[in-house]
Specification:
229 residues, alpha+beta, 2 domains, 5-stranded mixed barrel
Length: 229
Amino acid sequence: MQIDRERGPSHSGPSKHEEPFVIPNRLPVFPLPNVVFFPKTYLPLHVFEPRYRRMVADSTMGGQCIAMALLKEGWESDYYGNPAIYPALCIGRIVSVQPLPDGRSNILLQGLERGEILEEHFDRPYREATIRVTPLRSDEGLTTATRRALIDVLGRYLQSREDNAAWQGFFREEVGDEVLVNTLSTYLDCTPLEKQFLLEADGLRQRARRLNDLVQFMLHEHRGAKDWE
């Protein structure tokens, strides 16, 4: 598939200090079976299919945005057509394109906002959609207790991981609530459906609670597996 994700959290990426960006209401859609994108995160992709090469070329000359969507189960039989996708998705802005000699390219997307598909369009080689932006409320942050509980359960889960130290930077107080929750939602070893469930949460606090519950379950599974060793 067209993904080249880094293994684990990264502190690198374009500057956070950018001017407000106008998102077009009709966007190209890049559906994948194993990727759920979140606002306030970055996604590197390797693009090689002809239809998506065209999509990148058109997007860089136009609105600079691509909507990343998750394919629904059963996509394999119609991958080169237009298999069903989940309507809740994330809109990304193309912040860099690295063309390769054979026509492929590496691109980097900056997650802007969550969106919802209102209508799909199939008059180009790639799928497009009319999308309603559904951002989180700007005034919604986590309570101190919710943030502390999330960091506590994550700390217990990460104790057994070799990359534990790489995560500690995200637990600093100066890291914003949305960056914290969305970055953890991106890089934790959840299934695509579990990540889609996180993306569809009604607000940041609900996403944090869902993430907490998911990590609790993963922690319980890990302990159960060790009991059987």
